[in-house]
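Supplementary Text 2. Reproducibility record for the structural model of the 128-residue chain.

All settings were left at their defaults, and a single model was retained for analysis rather than an ensemble. We include the record here because the model underlies the residue-level annotations in Supplementary Table 4.
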Amino acid sequence: MVEITYATFLERVIHSIPGVSAVVVSDRDGGILVKAYSNAFNTDNVDTSLGATFAVASEQAGKLGLGKNKSIINFHRDKIIVYINLHPIFISFICSSDTNCGSFTSIVPDLQRGLDGLSKAISKEDDN
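Retained model, structure tokens:
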């Protein structure tokens, strides 16, 4: 059995959804744990505060009495940013404006499986 790195896993995710140019996995403080970019992506476009901002917004949205917040989608002039809450890790997808946002719902189980070891490591660190 061949083991793949988290970055390689994320690169496969990028290629599985048309329009995704970057994936950033961060902790609740916005610390980048792993990232992957398409060849055409400009890495200057990644703000490390994205993950921390989403973590706070997701926590606040969960207080609306509608249950745990699973994702937030931001639409910008020429980009879409999709945030997925897999507490204790948060995933940010930077996409083109024509990306089908519905396609993210189908990959969440794969993301959970593929990033499970990272999630457990962060959970263990938070417990200390």
